[in-house]
Amino acid sequence: MKKVTNQLVKQQFPAKHFKLLVVGGGAGGLGAASKFARKLPRGSVGIIEPHEDHYYQPGFTLVGGGLMSLKETTRKQEKLIPSGAKWIRNEVVLFTPTQNMVTLDGGEDISYDYMVVAMGAHLRFDKIKGALEALETPGVCSNYSPFHVEKHYREVMNFQGGNAIYTYPNGPIKCAGAPQKACYITDSILRQREVRENAHMIYATSLDKIFGVENYVKPLEKVAQEKDIDVRTRRNLIEIDTSKNSATFQLLDEDGAATEETEKIEYSLLHIGPPCSAPKALRKSPFADKSGFMDVDDGTLQSNRFPNVFGVGDCMNTPNAKTAASVSSHLKTLDRNLTLAMLGRKPYFKYDGYASCPLVVSKNRVILAEFNSNGTLETTPLNQKKPAYWAFLMKKYLMPALYWNGLIRGYWNGPATIRKFSRLVDSKNRKGIL
Ligand SMILES: Cc1cc2nc3c(=O)[nH]c(=O)nc-3n(C[C@H](O)[C@H](O)[C@H](O)COP(=O)(O)OP(=O)(O)OC[C@H]3O[C@@H](n4cnc5c(N)ncnc54)[C@H](O)[C@@H]3O)c2cc1C
C-alpha cells in the first residue's frame, strides 16, 4: 500500500516541472532551448542532456582529414546552456506522454507543459558484425565517432598501400555525404604523400548511385572518376573480420533488398559509415513510428499523437537528409509553431524540407549541395555543383561560426531569406537589369 501511495505521490508531484522541457542538448536542443529561454520567464525551460562535451559534428570531416583539430569541434556543455534555462545532466529512459512526464536514469520524474524532443540519431556500429571490436584495431576507423575520428587521419598518414574502403550503410545515416567526403580528402592526402598509386580506393555504398540527390550525381561521379575511385553500388557492409583484414558486403537488389550474395574485400584501411537509428528511449516510446524515429507532421514538426510535443533534428521521421543545416530550418518552424501552441492556437507554419551537405571533394574544394526532396534549393547565384574554393572557405570558417554563434544560440534560422534575395539578384542578372 505504501509503495502504491508513494507511486501516486511521485506521479502527481514530480520533483521538477518545466513549462518547456527539451530532451537533448545537441544542435537542435540547444537552438530550441535558446529561443524559448528568451521568450519565457527564467527557469521555465529545462534541458536534459547526459554529456559534458558538446561536439560540432560537421567539423569531424575536417578533423578526419587533418584540416581541423578535435579540440576546435569540442566545447563544454555547461558553457552552451542558455542563461535562464536549467541543465539536467542525465538521460531520459522513459517517456510517459499521457502524463506529460519523462523518467530519468535513476528513476527521477520530470513533468512538462510542452516538450521538444531533440535526441539526434545514434550511431549503430553494433549492427555490423565485429565493427565495435574492429574500431579498436589497426586500419579501421570512422569520422562519425569523436573517439575514432583522429584515428582516421593517423591511418591515412601512415597508409602505405592496399585497399582503402569507405562504406555507406543500408538505412538512415546522418550527413549522408560524410563517408564520401572522407574518401575524397584521403585521396588528396595520399597524392600529396606520393603513395596514391599504391592505393586502390573503393567507395562501397548501399545506394544505387553515388549520392541520393539526383542533381549532384553527375558532378560527384566526375570527381570520383577523376580521382580514380572505384565506386561500388548496392553493397552493404555486414561484417568485419580483423584476423583476415576482411570486410564482407551483402549485395542488394534493384529495390535495395538484401540478396544471398556477398562480397569479401581485404582492407588496409576501412572507414565505416555507420547505420543510425533513433535513440533507444525514443524507439520504444509512444512517439515513435515503425522505424523508431519520432512520428511528426513533416510540415509543422508537431508530434502526430501528442500535440504539446514537437520534434527537431535527426530524431524525427521527416524525409529530409539528417543535417545540422536542416536543424536551422526546423528551428525556424518550431519557433513559430510552438509559440502558437503555447498561445492555444493551431500550428500552421511548414518546414520547407531544407537540407545541405557541403561535399568536401579535396583539401580545398567543396560542392555545396543544398536541397529538399523536390530537388536543389541553392542559396547563392553561383554554380554550387562545381567544386569551389569559396565553398571550402564557407565549410571551414563560416559554417562553424554560424553553428556556435547562430544555430545553437537560436539566432540562425537557415538561409531561406538570403536565398530569396540572391534569387532576385540572379534573376535581375539574367534579365540584364544589374
Ligand atoms: C561525420 C559527420 C559529419 C557531418 N557533417 C555535416 C555537415 O557537413 N553539415 C551538416 O549540416 N550536418 C552535418 N552533420 C550532421 C549534424 O551534425 C547533425 O545532423 C546534427 O548534429 C543534428 O542535430 P540534433 O540536435 O538532431 O542531434 P545531435 O546534435 O546529435 O544532438 C542530440 C543530443 O541528444 C542527446 N541525447 C541522446 N539520447 C538522449 C536521451 N536519452 N536523453 C537525453 N539526451 C539524449 C545526445 O547526447 C546529443 O547531445 C554531420 C555529422 C557527422 C557525424
Short summary:
With 434 residues, the chain is an alpha/beta fold.
What does this structure look like?
- The strands form 6 sheets. Strands 1, 2, 5, 6, 7, 8 and 19 form a 7-stranded mixed β-sheet that branches. The chain has a 5-stranded parallel β-sheet with strand order 10-17-11-12-13, covered by helices on one side. Strands 14-15-16 form a 3-stranded antiparallel β-sheet, with no helix packed on it.
- With 434 residues, it is an alpha/beta fold.
- The termini are far apart.
- It is built from 12 helices and 22 strands.
- It has 3 domains: 2-121 and 278-342, 3-Layer(bba) Sandwich (FAD/NAD(P)-binding domain), CATH 3.50.50.60; 123-275, FAD/NAD(P)-binding domain; 355-431, no CATH class.
- The chain has helices at residues 2-12, 27-39, 60-64, 77-80, 131-134, 149-158, 178-192, 217-226, 280-283, 324-342, 389-407, 416-431, and strands spanning 16-23, 45-48, 53-55, 74-76, 85-88, 92-96, 101-104, 109-117, 122-123, 140-141, 162-168, 199-205, 230-232, 235-241, 246-252, 258-266, 269-271, 276-277, 309-311, 355-360, 366-372, 375-376.
- It binds flavin-adenine dinucleotide (FAD).
- Flavin-adenine dinucleotide is lined by residues 23-29, 48-51, 57-58, 60-61, 91-92, 118-120, 143-144, 174-175, 178, 279, 281, 313-315, 322-325, 327, 356-358.
- This is Sulfide:quinone oxidoreductase, mitochondrial.
